[in-house]
User: Fold this.
Amino acid sequence: MSLDPVPPGARLPLADEDAAPPPGVPEGKKQLVKETKALVKRIEELQRALYAENTRALLVVLQGRDAAGKDGTLRRVFGPIDPQGCRVTSFKRPTPLELSHDYLWRIHVAAPPRGVIGLFNRSHYEDVLVVRVHGLVPEPVWQQRYDQINAFERMLTENGTTVLKFFLHISREEQAERLRARLANPAKNWKFDEGDLGERKRWDAYTEAYRDALARCSTPHAPWFVVPADHKRTRNYLVASTVAAMLDRMAPKYPRADPAVLGLAKEIA
Ligand code: AMP
Ligand code: MG
Assistant:
């Protein structure tokens, strides 16, 4: 079951209950794991053909609140992919150099080259999310960005890059549990940022900002998908299934060697 794109212009409630596993997802841990494994294998196979074909790229954008599962999704869904065939970029607070350019500058250089799956852990959407919520630029500046982002993504798609954007949607309670777990587990402490608590207090402001980003930037050429992400295995299954469906539609093909080249086999001593 792959996800449906957010209809352009739709302002979704993004309520806590929307973060629970939806109907239609395979039931039971065993089945879910089995089907996800098959989907990941399919992504891995199609990625190899995409790389060999070397004409098109796929860009997968992952957005979500702190502890929504962006890192886990990268590990579980894209971990088995040939490292040469994918490129992960995690966008942090912009550096002084990045800030001296327009906000899309650092994004464009990180866009995947032909044959590659680009994976964005956060993205240019931070420039209408954290930047808007914290008032890091005046409202007229961030207001213009929705149209600029749509034009930028259109340009990417017109030049051979398919764009898929996932919002990993968790509930307030699930985030609280995961943040507590970060403090309780020595291997996860490092992920806890004191700033995360301040962000959590701005929950409703972020919800508003996400509603606008999804409504204004889910387009036929670069759709947004809302992933109910309270349950990790369901989240992995849904992302894997949606990415596999897109790669199936792209149907990358291995380039065929020239018959003259194939004939050289007998000359290999
Ligand atoms: P993490 O994903 O936990 O590594 O944290 C990265 C941090 O960088 C988050 O707090 C983001 O909100 C922040 N960040 C990413 N992009 C931007 C941006 N364009 N402007 C301001 N902060 C950003
Ligand atoms: Mg963090």
Summary: The longest strand covers residues 161-169. The mean pLDDT is 97.
